[in-house]
Amino acid sequence: MESIISVNAIHKAYKKRKSKQIFTAVSNVSFSVMKGEIVGLLGPNGAGKTTTIKTICGLLVPDQGTVTINGFDSVRDRKKALRHISAVLEGNRNLYWRLTVFENLVYFAGNRGVPKKEIAKKVEELLTLFQLHDKQDELVNNLSRGMQQKLAVSVAMLADTDVVLLDEPTLGLDVETGYEVRNLLRHIAHEQGKTIIISTHDMPVVQDLCERTIIINEGEVIANERVDQLLRLFATSAYRVEVKASLTDEQQAMLASRFPIHHWEADTLEVNLDQEQDIYKLMAILKQNETPIETINRTGINFEQVFRKLVNEGVTS
Ligand SMILES: Nc1ncnc2c1ncn2[C@@H]1O[C@H](COP(=O)(O)OP(=O)(O)OP(=O)(O)O)[C@@H](O)[C@H]1O
């Protein structure tokens, strides 16, 4: 596959306004994104995701390193590079709140260079795709957050660029609307061949939608892997152990001090072991404690557990 975005060892520091101290927001961040890929940019608050996204879309100039988009340097060839990108940053804040849905689409179509005679067709297409027809005459101000977010994404689609960058596209949406936005993004990537980079805290978005994830922690990339690969890697060491009698508080404390147990019930524990053979140690200890084991099963692991483990322990294997 061909790479469309290449982030090469970018570094960005900010000067804190009050203390004047220099704070490194991203350091030596490198990754590539292939044409048509959906990549999730993940990380705890303040990790450097927005800084990375803003650097890719040319809103920030890195102190060191480069970004190339379709082979064009985002600083030296800014205009040519940015022609390939649209971004939804800070969600609905970029919309005109006193205009209707329809008026926003028409305004931004002109603004993003859609030829005049194609505007009506383009707006119609997007109203249909995003199911915004029955809201088209509503003021943005009166829309729900979910509707505003859908409109913000549809505005980003007007320019028909190869790459769409989205900063927290499902922030604050209810489960149903979040699901709808996820399906739309999947449709856009698969049916229209767009490359999508999403920065998010929303783990189901990553597990369900992204093919690959780049995890940033304290300004550095700590993982760059396929999502299914990460889930497989961690699932091999996830177990659910059911015992015949309830564990005492003492037994629970003793086990917790030796194994990374992430879920307890009276007679069940779930653990993500660092090494597969640790399950035998766990079995031996339960036996010593005269706690007969009822069942041991491998469990599924969700992306949130993988993410926490990576951020807390900084390991991918
Ligand atoms: N303009 C700025 N001036 C000073 N510090 C900044 C500025 N922008 C970001 N930072 C700092 O840089 C770090 C990275 O911020 P960034 O917004 O990139 O993180 P993030 O991963 O997007 O976080 P969040 O998930 O909270 O949005 C943070 O510690 C932030 O306080």
UniProtKB/TrEMBL annotation:
Keywords: ATP-binding, Nucleotide-binding, Transport
SUPFAM superfamilies per record: P-loop containing nucleoside triphosphate hydrolases
Record flagged with keyword Nucleotide-binding: yes
Keyword Transmembrane annotated: no
PROSITE patterns: ABC_TRANSPORTER_2
GO molecular function, one term: ATP binding
Domain ABC transporter: 5-243
InterPro entries: AAA+_ATPase, ABC_transporter-like_ATP-bd, ABC_transporter_ATP-binding, P-loop_NTPase
Top-level taxon in the UniProt lineage: Bacteria
Coiled coil start-end: none
Stated family: Belongs to the ABC transporter superfamily.
Name of the molecule in the record: ABC transporter ATP-binding protein
Organism of derivation: Lentibacillus salinarum
Lineage: Bacteria, Bacillati, Bacillota, Bacilli, Bacillales
